[in-house]
Amino acid sequence: MKIKLPLFIAACTMGSSICFSQQGSAIREDFVPSSLNQPGQAYPQVNSQGYARFKIIAPSADSVRVSLGLGGRGGTKLERAADSSWMGTTEGPMDEGFHYYNIKIDGGKFNDPGAKNYYGSVRWESGIEIPAHDQDFYALKNVPHGMVQQVLFPSPSTNTSRRAFVYTPPGYETDSKARYPVLYLQHGWGEDETAWSNQGHANLIMDNLIAEGKIKPFIIVMTYGMTNEIRFGGIRDFKIEPFQAVLVEELIPYVDANFRTVAKASHRGMAGLSMGGMETRMITLNKPDVFSQYALLSGGLYAPEDIKDKSKVKMIFLSCGSRERPEGVKSAAEKLKAAGFNAVHYVSENTGHEFQTWRRSLRELAPLLFKN
């Protein structure tokens, strides 16, 4: 999950309300604090074009740079201001949606004191939100809301208790007879079980879709995918068996015993973004009797020959951003359809390997799940 931004030094005329990027295009001076700022903090800021502006108080520093994207690659060089703070604006507009970033001061890595923190890159990173033209689907609205609760479930295979977050839809608490399908939804590399709620707004996406009558309610379960033990670049060393045991032998029985689920493969799906998609692919192929609905969000592909018994698969969903490899997703879905599978593909326009892609993917996926 990387976003590369070249260096930028804002060029502003003294007393002017207009800045220019290095390419000479005008930058609108309508910057406002990011929606993810700490209470009362003015920076970082974003404008209506998607530029981000940063201000860091580090009077003794020799260099300050903002590194954006999971892993902190790419960045924006800040310049010392008259008050000894450091300021800078991205060279160009950023993709809509959520982005991780950190501050590098004289080579050391720090979080931005002005921004809230989110778990990514195997550490807590600062977060910034670039307003999206379609952000209404994950906005906090005056509609009935479900509940996201933390559960601690026993895990004999890891000799400890493990954590999961469970989204139950509006009405779950009041209708004691209703039973629900379940989607097991996995995060990506370097993230944890908080990602889909905090960065992805999965609960708000669900609430809004349910309020609009676009989906039938279902439960979502999000747990740590045992991905962080693998260093970036070491994916070939990843073994699925430990997490597969946690998910299939421990978490699913716990959820079925403690929540009102329909405890059948026909009413159980698995989805994941990026490395969570890789986990989804491995587990669904290894355990065809456990899940009937599969979704890979920027997380690999299925081929018809991968699936031994297509009668057990109700639906396959493949997605990615338009800046990833959309032709591969489209081609894979077409081959699955030709082989008789119910396969759907989705491409998020003008996004890459990032949460706006996956927010949109969940919006498209949810109405397809658990039909009939």
TrEMBL record:
SUPFAM superfamilies per UniProt: alpha/beta-Hydrolases (SSF53474)
Pfam assignment, any one: Esterase
Domain of life: Bacteria
CDD domains (UniProt xref): E_set_Esterase_N (cd02858)
Stored InterPro entries: AB_hydrolase_fold (IPR029058), Esterase-like (IPR000801), Ig-like_fold (IPR013783), Mycobacterial_A85_antigen (IPR050583)
UniProt-recorded name of the protein: Esterase
Species of the source: Terrimonas ginsenosidimutans
